[in-house]
Amino acid sequence: MTITLARRAQRMTPSVIREILKIAERPGIISLAGGLPSPDTFPIEALRAASEAVLRDHPREAMQYAASEGFMPLREWVAAQLRDQGMRADPDQILITNGSQQGLDLVGKALIDAGSVVAVEAPTYLGALQAFTPYEPEFTTLDCDDDGPLPDRLSLAKAARFLYVLPNFQNPSGRCVSNSRRADLAAAARALGLPIVEDNPYGELWFDAAPPPAIAAAWPEATIYLGSFSKVLAPGLRLGYILAPPELFPKLLQAKQASDLHTSGFSQRLVHEVVRGGFLRDHLPVIRARYKTHRDAMETALQRHMPSGCSWKSPAGGMFFWVKAPSSVDAMRLLPKAVERGVAFVPGAAFYANQAEKNALRLSFVTVPPEQIERGIQMIADALRA
Ligand SMILES: Cc1ncc(COP(=O)(O)O)c(C=O)c1O
After folding, report:
1. Is the domain of 151 the same as that of 263?
2. Is the pLDDT score of 213 beyond 90?
3. 101 lines ligand 1 (CB under 6 A)
4. Contact call for residues 363 and 323 (beta carbons, < 8 A)
5. Tens-place pLDDT, residues 326-350
6. Are 346 and 221 in a shared domain?
7. Can you give the residue range of the structural domain that contains 11?
8. Final residue of a domain: which of 258, 278, 298?
9. Which of 61, 193, 315, 317 is the most buried (most CB within 10 A)?
């Protein structure tokens, strides 16, 4: 008996990262591979207190089916935050999602036909490629420099359904798009009538200065902006949101209804209870300070141990270093040698839609203590020398 798969299922592939994480979970391995936030930053006490309050004050509402759009007070809170950051955001434009990963899937469902062109950065977030791929797009990769996608290349994407871009401390490259580049991208997109999907899970994790305003602030008519509570509270809550142009909102909502009816009402009330009194004002600086110390430890270790020919830029926020080894190095072949020595990372090739650069390594600095970061980097350097 053979079960015939849909074409879209044939295009689905296991995430390379998940396979690598299985290796990285072996005892004794220092894992710089994960994309997880540090569990030490999860505000357990605040969540416990909020959970008690929700179950005491609104137990039945929290456990009942709820609106597909999301819990209105949380939508209002999100809209107010985005307005404070210079965006045009009405609560009616906010769709609460089951993590921003669901936002990516809903965008794919609503906007991509088989053969539609979708423009992406090189490198880009692997999970977005996975979310879009079942809808059978053709990916166009935009040339990028250290500052992000080159606006004059946007004309190559003019027939695209959208450009998917991660302006803040990108996963995987750590890159932050400059203010002037954002303005140029928004202007070029406006001139072409090109919608933008702006994914921003890391924007609050800055170390010295907040990143420039979102592209959505300059191109609100056609930017679909995705946010997440995963990196500022905890990913287990599975809570994210979409800020959508009003004309697109009903289609994303219908896509969500078909997918899961609504996001957990309990999670939404819990998070609203935590954030409504300004909790993040005190909590975010704690995460930033912690991640900055880890970033500095990795920077020092890289400088101390990496052989010549390797290059990187110290990220100004987020969770990742993107290290380029000499072009003769294939990071996928380096990985087993690194694992033998006791360290894991993610080979950069996983993050390209088309032609992959093989010599890059994504190194997460947030979950491993600084002493282990130093040892891990030393082992990668040893593997590279060997
Ligand atoms: C760039 C990017 N977008 C989206 C997500 C999905 O996050 P979540 O679904 O937890 O909000 C991640 C997760 O790591 C990510 O790195």
Report:
1. yes
2. yes
3. yes
4. yes
5. 999 999 999 999 999 999 999 999 9
6. no
7. 7-42+281-385
8. 278
9. 315
Position of tokens 């950051």? 85
Q: Are residues 84 and 222 located together in one domain of the fold?
A: yes
Is the predicted pLDDT of residue 156 greater than 90, yes or no?
no
Q: What's the domain count of the chain?
A: 2
pTM: 0.96
Q: Same domain for 15 and 102?
A: no
Using the atom order of ligand 1, give the atom closest to the CA of residue 166.
Answer: 1
pLDDT of residue 13: 79
The rounded distance, in Å, linking the Cα atoms of 271 and 78 is: 11
Dmax over CA atoms of the chain, in Å, equals: 62
Per-residue pLDDT tens over the stretch 192-203? 999 999 999 999
Mean pLDDT of 229-243: 98
Residue 257's CATH number = 3.40.640.10
DSSP for residue 309: T
Using the mean position of ligand 1's atoms as its centre, give its distance from the Cα of residue 281 in Å: 22
Residue 171 Cβ inside 6 Å of ligand 1? The answer reads yes
How many angstroms separate the alpha carbon of residue 104 from the centre of ligand 1? 9
Q: What share of the chain is helix, strand, coil (3-state, %, to 5)?
A: 50, 15, 40
CA of 231 to the centre of ligand 1 (A): 9
Percent of the chain with pLDDT over 90: 89
Distance 99 CA to ligand 1 centre (A): 7
- On whether residue 212 sits in a domain, the answer given is yes
Q: Which atom of ligand 1 is nearest to the CA of 102?
A: 9
Q: What is the DSSP code string of 21-35?
A: HHHHTSTT-EE----
